[in-house]
Amino acid sequence: xxxxxxxxxxxxxxxxxxxxxxxxxxxxxxxxxxxxxxxxxxxxxxxxxxxxxxxxxxxxxxxxxxxxxxxxxxxxxxxxxxxxxxxxxxxxxxxxxxxxxxxxxxxxxxxxxxxxxxxxxxxxxxx
Length: 127
Ligand code: SF4
Ligand code: SF4
Prior knowledge:
Blueprint: H1 3-24, H2 35-42, E1 59-60, E2 63-64, H3 69-72, H4 77-82, H5 84-101, H6 110-124
Antiparallel strand pairs: 1-2
Helix pairs in contact: 1-5
This protein binds iron/sulfur cluster (2 copies).
Protein backbone atom coordinates (compact mmCIF):
# COMPACT_ATOMS: atom_id res chain seq x y z
CA UNK A 1 0.00 0.00 0.00
CA UNK A 2 1.24 3.52 -0.73
CA UNK A 3 0.96 6.45 1.67
CA UNK A 4 -2.40 7.64 0.32
CA UNK A 5 -3.94 4.18 0.60
CA UNK A 6 -2.58 3.80 4.13
CA UNK A 7 -4.00 7.19 5.08
CA UNK A 8 -7.43 6.20 3.73
CA UNK A 9 -7.22 2.91 5.60
CA UNK A 10 -6.27 4.68 8.86
CA UNK A 11 -9.34 6.92 8.60
CA UNK A 12 -11.57 4.01 7.63
CA UNK A 13 -10.47 2.01 10.71
CA UNK A 14 -10.92 5.08 12.94
CA UNK A 15 -14.45 5.68 11.59
CA UNK A 16 -15.30 1.99 11.86
CA UNK A 17 -14.23 1.99 15.54
CA UNK A 18 -16.44 5.04 16.12
CA UNK A 19 -19.41 3.15 14.65
CA UNK A 20 -18.73 0.12 16.88
CA UNK A 21 -18.51 2.29 20.02
CA UNK A 22 -21.71 4.06 18.97
CA UNK A 23 -23.50 0.73 18.40
CA UNK A 24 -22.61 -0.78 21.81
CA UNK A 25 -22.10 2.41 23.85
CA UNK A 26 -19.79 0.58 26.30
CA UNK A 27 -18.40 3.72 27.93
CA UNK A 28 -21.85 5.10 28.94
CA UNK A 29 -20.74 8.73 29.26
CA UNK A 30 -22.82 10.97 31.50
CA UNK A 31 -21.34 14.45 31.38
CA UNK A 32 -17.59 14.01 31.51
CA UNK A 33 -17.73 10.70 33.40
CA UNK A 34 -17.57 7.29 31.72
CA UNK A 35 -18.29 3.89 33.27
CA UNK A 36 -14.78 3.52 34.67
CA UNK A 37 -14.60 7.12 35.89
CA UNK A 38 -17.78 6.51 37.89
CA UNK A 39 -16.39 3.22 39.23
CA UNK A 40 -13.34 5.03 40.63
CA UNK A 41 -15.10 8.24 41.65
CA UNK A 42 -17.93 6.48 43.51
CA UNK A 43 -15.39 4.50 45.52
CA UNK A 44 -13.33 7.64 46.04
CA UNK A 45 -10.21 5.73 45.04
CA UNK A 46 -9.00 8.49 42.82
CA UNK A 47 -10.68 11.26 40.84
CA UNK A 48 -11.17 10.59 37.12
CA UNK A 49 -12.87 12.46 34.28
CA UNK A 50 -13.04 12.53 30.47
CA UNK A 51 -12.95 8.77 30.02
CA UNK A 52 -9.46 7.50 29.34
CA UNK A 53 -8.29 10.93 28.20
CA UNK A 54 -7.99 12.47 31.73
CA UNK A 55 -6.27 15.84 31.19
CA UNK A 56 -4.60 15.09 27.83
CA UNK A 57 -3.79 18.31 25.99
CA UNK A 58 -5.19 16.87 22.74
CA UNK A 59 -8.74 16.72 24.04
CA UNK A 60 -11.13 19.25 22.52
CA UNK A 61 -14.80 20.10 22.98
CA UNK A 62 -15.76 17.40 20.48
CA UNK A 63 -13.26 14.78 21.69
CA UNK A 64 -9.79 13.92 20.43
CA UNK A 65 -8.39 16.64 18.15
CA UNK A 66 -5.64 14.48 16.66
CA UNK A 67 -7.42 11.23 15.71
CA UNK A 68 -5.10 8.99 17.70
CA UNK A 69 -5.95 5.50 16.51
CA UNK A 70 -4.13 3.73 19.35
CA UNK A 71 -6.29 5.61 21.86
CA UNK A 72 -9.40 5.02 19.77
CA UNK A 73 -8.83 1.26 19.84
CA UNK A 74 -8.10 1.11 23.59
CA UNK A 75 -10.64 -0.56 25.86
CA UNK A 76 -10.40 -0.69 29.65
CA UNK A 77 -11.18 -3.75 31.77
CA UNK A 78 -14.79 -2.64 32.31
CA UNK A 79 -15.46 -2.63 28.57
CA UNK A 80 -13.52 -5.85 27.99
CA UNK A 81 -15.42 -7.71 30.70
CA UNK A 82 -18.93 -6.37 30.15
CA UNK A 83 -19.20 -5.70 26.41
CA UNK A 84 -17.67 -8.82 24.91
CA UNK A 85 -19.04 -8.48 21.36
CA UNK A 86 -17.84 -4.88 21.24
CA UNK A 87 -14.42 -6.05 22.38
CA UNK A 88 -14.31 -8.76 19.67
CA UNK A 89 -15.06 -6.22 16.94
CA UNK A 90 -12.57 -3.65 18.26
CA UNK A 91 -9.91 -6.36 18.64
CA UNK A 92 -10.28 -7.19 14.93
CA UNK A 93 -9.55 -3.55 14.07
CA UNK A 94 -6.58 -3.56 16.49
CA UNK A 95 -5.16 -6.59 14.71
CA UNK A 96 -5.55 -4.98 11.30
CA UNK A 97 -3.99 -1.72 12.53
CA UNK A 98 -0.99 -3.59 13.90
CA UNK A 99 -0.59 -5.42 10.59
CA UNK A 100 -0.63 -2.16 8.62
CA UNK A 101 1.23 0.21 10.94
CA UNK A 102 2.95 -1.85 13.63
CA UNK A 103 2.82 -0.70 17.23
CA UNK A 104 1.63 2.91 17.59
CA UNK A 105 2.14 4.68 20.93
CA UNK A 106 -0.97 5.97 22.71
CA UNK A 107 -1.55 9.64 22.01
CA UNK A 108 0.31 9.69 18.69
CA UNK A 109 -1.53 11.73 16.05
CA UNK A 110 -2.20 10.54 12.53
CA UNK A 111 -0.01 13.29 11.09
CA UNK A 112 2.93 12.38 13.38
CA UNK A 113 2.61 8.72 12.46
CA UNK A 114 2.57 9.44 8.76
CA UNK A 115 5.14 12.19 8.49
CA UNK A 116 7.64 10.94 11.06
CA UNK A 117 7.41 7.17 10.99
CA UNK A 118 5.87 5.90 7.79
CA UNK A 119 7.62 8.45 5.59
CA UNK A 120 11.00 7.36 7.00
CA UNK A 121 10.18 3.67 6.49
CA UNK A 122 9.09 4.24 2.91
CA UNK A 123 12.21 6.31 2.20
CA UNK A 124 14.34 3.44 3.47
CA UNK A 125 12.48 1.08 1.15
CA UNK A 126 13.02 3.52 -1.75
CA UNK A 127 9.32 4.45 -2.16
S1 SF4 B 1 -12.64 2.58 27.52
FE1 SF4 B 1 -13.07 2.51 29.74
S2 SF4 B 1 -11.88 4.22 30.62
FE2 SF4 B 1 -12.00 4.54 28.40
S3 SF4 B 1 -13.80 5.88 28.09
FE3 SF4 B 1 -14.51 3.75 27.89
S4 SF4 B 1 -15.21 3.14 29.92
FE4 SF4 B 1 -13.95 4.96 30.14
S1 SF4 C 1 -4.64 11.66 22.27
FE1 SF4 C 1 -5.68 9.99 23.29
S2 SF4 C 1 -5.78 10.62 25.42
FE2 SF4 C 1 -5.38 12.45 24.20
S3 SF4 C 1 -7.40 13.34 23.72
FE3 SF4 C 1 -6.83 11.99 22.02
S4 SF4 C 1 -7.82 10.07 22.54
FE4 SF4 C 1 -7.71 11.24 24.43
